[in-house]
Amino acid sequence: MALFLVLVGVVLFICIFLNTASNRIGMPVLLAFILLGILFSNNGLIPIKMENYNFVEQLCSTALIFIMFYGGFGTRWSSARPVAVESMLLATVGVIMTAVVTAFLCHFLLGWDMLESLLLGSVLSSTDAASVFSILRTKKLGLRNGIAPLLEVESGSNDPCAYMMTIISLSLLGGKVTFGGIALTLVAQLGLGTIFGLLIAQGAIYLLNKVDFSTNGFDSMFLIAVAILSYALPSLVGGNGYLSTYIVGVYLGNHGLSSKKDMVNFFDAFTGLMQVLIFFMLGLLARVDLMVKALVPALVVFLILSLVARPATVAAILTPFRKYKLRDQALISFAGLRGASSIVFAIVAVVGEKSLDNDLFNVVFCIVLVSIALQGALLPYVAKKLDMIDPETDVMKTFSDFSEEAKLQFAEIRISDDSAWKDKMVRNLNIPREMLLCLNITSDGQRLVPNGNTVFHEGDTVIVCSKEFQGEDKMKVQRVVIPDDPFRKNLTIRDFHVQKGQVMLLTRGEERIIPHGSTEVLPGDVLYINRSVQEQESPEDLLPNDNRA
Question: Are residues 311 and 442 in the same domain?
Fold first, then answer.
């Protein structure tokens, strides 16, 4: 047991390191985690025996629920609305076209059975949002003509249709379905998935508004339960659980939840863990010897996808919109990376159909690795060569966890005897445009909304509002505890030398003090100093002035 826990801890530590390294070089973290799994696979350097496809399929499908939910939760609908029609066409009609074109070419070029070729095309028909946007976010690549929101909505919403095509292909292979059965499956998958998604989203919003989560974090746990139910309930009656999950995520993510910032922080970490789980488990299933045998057909299928199926699909769907030029379509085609969902659907296919003539899993695995390594690494270069990078556009505006308007900060100002605001009318104060006077709490407890004629008196407390600092030159806070020095008494803030920084807060037990030059500093006090992250700390920064060399 202890050895197993050590192994888990080491793997998690390596995953965190790989995540940091991949962000620096711009390579999708998916590739790093898969390679780590291969390292620990049956034939790897540190072998872990893993051959249970059913277990991995159930585990990865469950993790995919939360990734799909958070993919919708993070989609900024105000940015996505202008490209919603073309995005949804790519996510539905585009998925079907990609699967069919890939199937025909695989059948004629590789000699695969037509239905098995359709299964392969269906598994590979969706694109991977995590891979594309890990690159765009890391490199801060703002794209022209609304391409970033289009890619986000398409890649975030095309998994349900790819899953549906995979299920239909498996049914055809098993000879268990007729044309009428296919039509009924389509209606049930799309119709029930949509209806359940909308109903569950409405119910979740109602409960979030009615229930008081007295313990921090329970609202995020509530969303985990919602995500699970949004998949499970429609799946029980033949609906598309992934579609329902994505709809619920989009609806909740754009509803303006009161504690959304905490939810975003929680789900960033939680879905990150789910991605690590998926990618690592998929890597464990890999067998290098079988991947070598599957490499040639995988490269052929990759070329079919990247040079024919994806470009033809994009051109057929986007050309009628007229606003997408050839270079727009070229970038959208190139950004169609394959990812974890394709490998998960390949496992679903292998588990669902035991009598496949070809090694579908390893072919798909190789295609995903090549797609991420080649297309992922070249995406910034291709975007630059096509002149599709817009330095004035912030790619983060595509996501609902980005606030286009700066967040508001509230602060209190107490009117003292020597305050410059004492006994003056608001209209005569030199107040910056970026600051708003929100409330005046008088010395006798009255709460008044100030106007131009309001006069502040000694003992009043004024609540002001301003924008949160959004600049790239972020501030870091250094926490310093004042030691007990029996040879030095009666120190004040002005007695300390703070190089390229400022003492912004002093805490003494439970008391919080905004310091001034004459504020006394006692042993045990905690000083908080802000400084630019670009500034280096000096060992003499907080020495009293008479103790500096």
Answer: no
Statement to judge: residues 363 and 412 lie in one domain: no
Residue 259 · residue 208 · CB < 8 Å: no
Tokens of 198: 């909308």
User: In a 3-state reduction of DSSP, which class is residue 502?
Assistant: strand
Measured from the Cβ of residue 295, the count of other Cβ atoms closer than 10 Å reads 16
Beta bridge partners of 530: 477, 502
Query: Among 193, 51, 127, which Cα is nearest to 331's?
Result: 127
* Enclosing domain of residue 428: 408-467
Q: Which of residues 449, 467, 485 is at a domain's end?
A: 467
Residue 431 lies in a domain: yes
Task: Locate the DSSP E strands across 389-446.
Answer: 408-414, 435-441
Tokens of 545: 């002035």
Degrees, nearest 5: CA angle 407-454-465:
10
Q: Per-residue pLDDT tens for 280-319? A: 777 777 777 788 888 999 999 999 999 999 999 999 999 9
DSSP state of 483: P
> Do 311 and 227 share a domain, yes or no?
yes
The region, left, alpha or beta by phi > 0 then psi within -120 to 50, assigned to residue 509 is: left
Residue that is last in its domain, among 368, 397, 426 = 397
Longest CA pairwise span in the chain (Å): 92
How many domains does the chain divide into?
3
pLDDT tens string 469-503: 655 445 566 777 777 766 566 778 777 666 666 77
Between the CA of residue 297 and those of 59, 96, 184, 291, 364, what are the distances in Å? 28, 22, 34, 10, 10
